[in-house]
Design goal:
This protein has helices at residues 9-38, 43-64, 73-90, 112-131, 138-141, 143-157, 162-178, 183-203, 205-215, 226-238, 263-296, 300-324, 342-360; strands at 103-105, 108-110. It has a two-stranded antiparallel ribbon with strand order 1-2. The protein contains 13 helices and two strands. The chain has one domain. It is 68% helix and 2% strand. The protein is mostly helical. The chain is globular, with a radius of gyration of 20 Å. Helix 1 (9-38) packs antiparallel against helix 2 and helix 6 runs antiparallel to helix 7.
Length: 366
């Protein structure tokens, strides 16, 4: 039997540093915006601080609950049922900025699409654990996962939220690959989905505009290319050491959503290349230690669960930072553990708590 160990300290410290950075940078990025909109400079800070405290408490709880209990069918099906019900309910909610992504619960806005990532990861890990001995018999191993992730992805796409849908499907793809599915099948599925991807990208006018703005943001610098240009200006003016905390300019009503989708641009402007690199290094540590936990997990469920949770954070960080740097089209994926927003933060911290618990059961010292 695997020897029970302490949680991965380096992994925990990286998570804690990102959470602390979130409090500081959310305030720096949002103070003037909050003053202008709500006449309260601490409006977003106070909310984020509450989410951080609650999220860290949930992380500590999750890190102490044996992850093997999560494979119980009652846990998995209850979480899936709640997720699907919430995703259906949100389609009837009042639109915000042209989308239906939030449910109002006790005065708080909750995004069911964030919970869906955790639900699908648990479900896929449990199914793959039982069927990975015949993983390349795709008629046996994959139908439940394809159906569940496809149905949930379709509900998220209806909000519409193409970015989260794509991230969800890529997480599942990474888990299936980690379970041993031949890369030839993955390449084949990817090639078969390309026409569907093209149809989805071109089916909505705003997606087409975002693609064109990505290819040439200066074609429409005051319109669709505005976000990309302002983010790149913020990153470029940060230099090596940055302009200093609270001294950034682009957040002053130039950079859209400076405390959420584009918080990395504010970090780069105010703390420079050094600060932005430290944040990037923290994510690299989480990814490397997370996959190490997956490799050393004592059972298949733990390995697949760790791989899925690590991929969840890695993909979102990669997409968000790439958007800020102009390497990908603009999408509404937050920077995990840093961006303002309760739903994403709570799910990410709970996921990291589960990952820390798996690390306790690893078969070698971390």
């Amino acid at each position: 039997m695997a020897r029970k160990l302490k949680s991965d300290k380096l992994l925990f410290l990286s998570i804690l540093l990102l959470a602390c950075t979130s409090v500081v940078m959310v305030y720096s990025a949002s103070a003037l915006l909050a003053m202008d909109r709500y006449d309260q400079p601490y409006f977003f800070l106070s909310k984020q601080a509450i989410w951080i405290v609650l999220g860290m408490a949930l992380l500590l709880v999750a890190s102490q609950v044996d992850y093997r209990r999560l494979r119980h069918p009652f846990v998995i099906w209850t979480l899936l049922g709640l997720t699907v019900s919430a995703l259906i309910a949100v389609l009837f909610a009042q639109p915000i900025n042209g989308t239906r992504r939030w449910l109002g619960i006790a005065g708080l806005g909750v995004q069911p699409s964030e919970l869906s990532k955790l639900a699908v990861i648990l479900f896929a890990a449990a199914v793959l654990e039982r069927r990975m001995h015949r993983i390349n018999d795709i008629g046996y191993s994959l139908p439940p996962i394809v159906f569940a992730s496809g149905a949930i992805g379709a509900l998220i796409l209806l909000q519409p939220d193409f970015g989260t849908t794509l991230v969800l499907l890529l997480i599942v793809g990474a888990m299936v690959f980690a379970a041993g599915l031949s890369y030839q099948y993955l390449v084949g599925v990817g090639a078969a989905l390309l026409p569907l991807l093209y149809m989805v990208l071109t089916s909505a006018e705003y997606r087409r505009r975002r693609m064109l703005a990505f290819l040439d943001p200066w074609e429409d610098p005051l319109g669709d290319g505005f976000q990309i240009i302002q983010a790149q200006i913020a990153v470029g003016t940060g230099g090596l050491f940055g302009q200093g905390l609270m001294a950034g300019v682009q957040k002053l009503f130039y950079l859209p959503y400076p405390h959420t989708d584009f918080i990395y641009a504010v970090i780069a402007e105010e703390t420079g290349l050094i600060g932005a690199s430290i944040i990037l290094l923290c994510f690299c540590v989480i990814v490397l230690r997370g996959f190490r936990v997956a490799a050393l997990a004592p059972d298949r469920f733990g390995a697949l669960l760790a791989a899925g949770l690590t991929t969840m954070v890695a993909l979102q960080a990669f997409v968000n930072i790439s958007v800020v740097l102009g390497l990908l089209p603009t999408t509404g994926i937050p920077l995990p553990l840093v961006s303002a927003g309760g739903s994403s933060l709570l799910v990410s911290l709970v996921g990291m708590g589960i990952l820390l618990n798996i690390s306790q059961h690893a078969s070698a010292e971390t």
